[in-house]
Design goal:
heterotrimer, A mainly alpha, B alpha+beta, C alpha/beta, B: MetI-like fold, two-stranded antiparallel sheet, 6 strands, C: 9 helices, 10 strands, globular
């Protein structure tokens, strides 16, 4: 088993290949076998993708995949929302890069950042063409991307001039945007109502995921605090809840939500199926987030709370200003991992009859015009999910590095 | 705490009393929860009575009226519901057991491959884990079932390996023979089972690989160096020195992955495999007995989780170091 | 001349831990304004436990403690009032790692005393200057040495303008070369008339700065005496034993 060589002795590429791939006879054999297998697989895949696959199924149904059966004449609201999202993302991204941080700047960050921008631009240019979208839609795509990049640049340029108060308020644009988004999507305030049963595709998936992510976090923090409390009622209540949820498969809980919720409310009335599922997802994720935050809380030395209390800070202040900030920094990677799982778990909505991205895909494939095009659709879906989840993972690592130089400078 | 009277102000007001406040908080929370539960249960009882569906278990002896595609125990539509649920449970246990073994083997192989001297092998292990972890399990299961297993050829064209035949009609093990265009063999699995098993093994294997990798990485470098200076070959070092120590970190991680796999087996419905959840869903749709079916369903998975946890905790006790 | 006011009055304090261990067995102590009292003793003697009862970080089952005229009782209002007037410095510094040095100092005065931030920041910078690390104001605790961190901890407590300062083995976790800088700060505080109760092993500090030395052993106060009498002519056998042990 080899350890990587020290930097001064790092060999050139040819020597590196020789050592890594053909270091011993066994290694050489393995390498040859793997390389031939990989080449064969790659060629097969390429041949299939270029010659046998019919990608029309994607482009013909792109609207369905994107927003389900959302009424055509109301879709401008969704475009407005995506423009706002692009703006918010660009601002957050730019500020993340620009705001001063103490400690040495991590060297990898600027390089990865440039790669991210490059990939974004390439995707934004290529996707609308590949999906053969109409010119009007292509223009809107490009406009949104331009808006994102513009906001990112502007935030990077002028972010430093913001007052500290403004900086503390910036993260609030996301919950605010969420509320605005809900109004835009469902209606009200003068806009036509669009029933949840008309929401579908990527729109529904992202909506469900973001709803659950936003709400499960505070609930999870409360549960974690309850779990560690010394008061028996709070502690055992939290334990019961967390262990019950963690012992049950998500599909059974979704099923429970769909079937029993109607019985639990007076007169048998129940909220729309979409909202039932959204709340089940929230309560489900909260239990897992609670466990992540609990280990974060356990990592904060007890002396921190003692010091805060001995300075005269009341318990709520001590928790909010001293204990939780430290606990959440520790719990961040695991918590974001839970968010990624949540995004993936939205696919289970298709099993209870909701038309999320996967559900929409299955209805598309049931369409006789597109019979047998399973592989193309599933491949695109897989790539889409992979990109979203990987992006979340990368974002989390970037956020971690951003927060931790404050703590890690001495370690 | 202190027995002396408080200061000149008189009795400590209740809202500042350090001893009283915890009880007040608990009483308040308890009250809210109890009221909520009473409200929900009250509605539940009222609505169930109105629908004639009050909690009872007699229906479980009624004939089920549906068939189960694949089952270890003999079953047909005339047998009662409880036999159906039992068959579903057995199916779940079958796939979970096979899945645990398969995922552990795959995960261990990939996890140790991350430490191979071959750069390509290491890279592939990394790619495998990163790709699988970021694609939803349901999507992977559907892929295996619809795109791979259902696309298998049948009859003469079936994929024939030594002792194993992969065909659209099923997976045949142990001397399969083609009889009148239909494959027969002593050991036969449906493609539904095969797809579910493959999907679960590939998915959970990636997570187990990470657990194994983390476990091996947690063993100090000094152990490797000491072993090699004693003349141990790398493979021997791994199996005799490093892995036993890595197990201390690996076993707890495996516990959560195993429970995860057991719960994920409930997605069998996407592969058309009739596991416990799938049978329960059908039962509920036919009888309308939501509460009872839910209790059975949640109770069964809870028991499975507890059994796995108990076994893993026992294993944990074995692998922990005995320290002074 | 009137005798100085009594800042801390402890009478008959008894404490049992939940496992039954009798940590404090009827301890009495009076601390007057401007006095520096050093508590010494072998480990497990209860000296830190006793110190921590003064600002309610530890409970006690019997006896009475009055701090700055306020009785310690179940009344949270009393406890909060006491904690505002009493500053504590810990062995492990307990600085807040996610806040800068300046923010560590300004957090409590702004949140608890509700003072305006600019005024608090000015005072904080003065205090940092007084303990000798004004230039580190915008660094984070993780970037400072142990001695610097402890000095920040002292400044953080001082920023609340306490009338009493408690020190729980403030130099025990420091490397030897940094002990002196912290002791010098504490000496400065004593010179300025701060009422201090210090649990420590530093004999030289006790000799030079303390007005009285208290020896505790196994939950009891063995002897209380001015330092010159205590160190050269201890009255009790256990005091002599202890002095032999610390050499």
């Amino acid at each position: 088993m080899a350890a990587p060589p020290p930097a001064t002795l790092r060999p050139g590429p040819v020597q590196w290949l020789r050592r890594e791939l053909f270091g011993s006879r066994l290694d050489g054999l393995i390498s040859i076998a793997l390389i031939s297998f990989l080449l064969a697989a790659a060629l097969g895949l390429a041949r299939w993708a270029l010659f046998q696959a019919q990608w029309a199924v994607i482009s013909a149904n792109s609207t369905l995949f994107a927003v389900g059966r959302y009424p055509l004449e109301q879709q401008w609201r969704l475009w407005l929302l995506s423009a706002l999202l692009a703006l918010a993302t660009g601002l957050s991204w730019g500020l993340l890069r620009a705001l001063p941080r103490s400690g040495p700047p991590p060297t990898l960050w600027p390089r990865n950042d440039r790669w991210a921008v490059a990939i974004l631009v390439v995707l934004a240019l290529w996707l609308p063409l590949a999906l053969q979208l109409t010119l009007a839609i292509q223009l809107r795509w490009w406009a949104s991307t331009a808006l994102l990049l513009l906001a990112r640049w502007a935030a990077g340029r002028w972010g430093q001039t913001l007052s500290p108060l403004a900086r503390r308020l910036i993260p609030l644009i996301w919950p605010l945007l969420y509320l605005v988004g809900m109004v835009l999507i469902s209606g009200g305030l003068g806009l036509v109502q669009v029933a949840p049963s008309d929401w579908g595709g990527l729109l529904l998936t992202l909506l469900m995921a973001s709803f659950a992510i936003l709400l499960c976090f505070p609930l999870g923090v409360l549960l974690a605090l309850g779990r560690r409390s010394e008061l028996p009622v709070l502690r055992w209540g939290s334990v019961l809840y967390i262990e019950f949820i963690r012992g049950a498969p998500l599909i059974t809980l979704l099923f429970l939500g769909q079937n029993i919720l109607g019985f639990l409310l007076p007169g048998g009335l129940a909220p729309d199926r979409v909202w039932r599922a959204a709340w089940v997802l929230t309560f489900f994720a909260a239990a897992y987030v609670a466990e992540a935050v609990r280990s974060g809380l356990a990592a904060v030395p007890s002396g921190q709370l003692e010091a805060a209390r001995s300075l005269g800070l009341s318990m709520p202040f001590a928790l909010i200003h001293v204990v939780l900030p430290q606990a959440l920094r520790v719990a961040l990677p695991t918590t974001v991992g839970q968010f990624i799982s949540l995004l993936q778990d939205t696919t289970l909505l298709s099993l209870i009859g909701l038309l999320d991205l996967l559900g929409t895909a299955r209805t598309v494939m049931a369409n006789p015009a597109f019979l047998g095009r399973n592989a193309e659709v599933y491949l695109v879906l897989a790539v889409l999910f992979w990109c979203c989840c990987a992006a979340l993972g990368l974002g989390s690592r970037a956020l971690e590095t951003r927060l931790n130089p404050n703590l890690a400078a001495s370690r | 705490m202190v027995l002396l009277p408080p200061s000149a102000g008189g009795v400590t007001p209740w809202w500042r009393n350090r001893r009283l406040i915890p009880w007040l908080v608990q009483a308040a929370v308890g009250l809210v929860v109890l009221v909520l539960i009473a409200f929900l249960v009250g509605n539940l009882v009222a609505n169930l009575s109105a629908a004639g569906l009050l909690l009872s278990w007699g229906w479980i002896d009624n004939p089920s009226g549906f068939d189960i595609a694949e089952t270890l125990l003999p079953f047909d539509a005339s047998l009662p519901y409880w036999r159906a649920l039992l068959a579903g449970l057995v199916n779940t246990l079958r796939v979970v057991l096979a899945g645990l073994i398969g995922a552990t083997v795959l995960g261990t192989l990939v996890g140790t491959a991350s430490f191979s001297s071959n750069g390509l092998l290491r890279g592939l292990a990394r790619v495998y884990v990163e790709v699988i972890r970021n694609i939803p399990l349901l999507l992977q299961l559907i892929f295996w079932y619809f795109v791979v297993f259902l696309a298998l050829p049948d009859g003469i064209d079936a994929i024939q390996l030594p002792g194993l035949v992969l065909a659209k009609s099923g997976l045949f093990l142990g001397n399969p023979e083609l009889v009148n265009g239909v494959w027969q063999a002593p050991l036969r699995f449906t493609v539904e089972f095969g797809a579910l098993l493959t999907g679960l093994v590939v998915y959970t294997g990636a997570f187990i690989a990470e657990v194994v990798r983390g476990g091996i990485a947690s063993v100090p470098r000094g152990q490797w160096e000491a072993a090699s200076s004693l003349g141990f070959a790398p493979l021997l070092t791994l199996s005799r020195i490093v892995l036993p120590q890595a197990l201390r970190v690996i076993v707890p991680g495996l516990n959560s992955q195993y429970i995860s796999l057991a719960k994920n087996s409930s997605l069998a419905v996407a592969c058309g495999f009739t596991d416990l959840y799938s049978v329960s869903e059908t039962t509920l749709n036919q009888t309308g007995r939501a509460v009872e079916v839910m209790l059975i369903l949640l109770g069964s998975y809870l028991v499975i989780d507890l059994v796995i946890s108990a076994l893993m905790n026992g294993l944990n006790g074995l692998v922990q170091l005995r320290e002074r | 001349m009137t005798s100085p006011a009594v800042m801390i009055e402890a009478r008959g304090v008894e404490k049992w831990y939940p496992n039954g261990f009798h940590a404090l067995r009827g301890v009495d102590l009076s601390v007057h304004q401007g006095e520096v009292v050093v508590i010494m003793g072998p480990s497990g003697s209860g000296k830190s436990t006793f110190l921590r009862t003064f600002n309610a970080l530890e409970d006690f089952q019997q006896g009475a403690i009055t701090v700055d005229g306020i009785t310690l009782s179940d009344d949270l209002g009393h406890i909060d009032a006491i904690r505002r007037e009493v500053g504590m410095v810990f062995q492990q510094f307990n600085l807040f790692p996610h806040l800068s040095v300046l923010e560590n100092l300004t957090l409590a005065p702004v949140l608890v005393r509700k003072l305006p931030k600019p005024a608090v920041e000015r005072r904080a910078l003065e205090l940092l200057d007084r303990v000798g690390i004004a230039e580190q104001a915008h660094k984070y605790p993780g970037q400072l040495s142990g001695g610097q961190q402890q000095r920040v901890a002292i400044a953080r407590s001082l920023c609340m303008e306490p009338r009493i300062m408690l020190f729980d083995e403030p130099t025990s976790a420091l490397d030897p070369e940094m002990v002196q800088e912290v002791l010098e700060v504490m000496q400065g505080l004593a010179r300025d008339g701060m009422t201090m109760v210090v649990v420590t092993h530093e004999v030289r500090f006790a000799r030079q700065v303390a007005h009285r030395v208290v020896l505790m052993d196994a939950g009891v106060v063995v002897e209380i005496a001015p330092p010159d009498r205590f160190f050269s002519n201890p009255q009790h056998e256990r005091s002599r034993q202890f002095l032999r042990q610390i050499g």
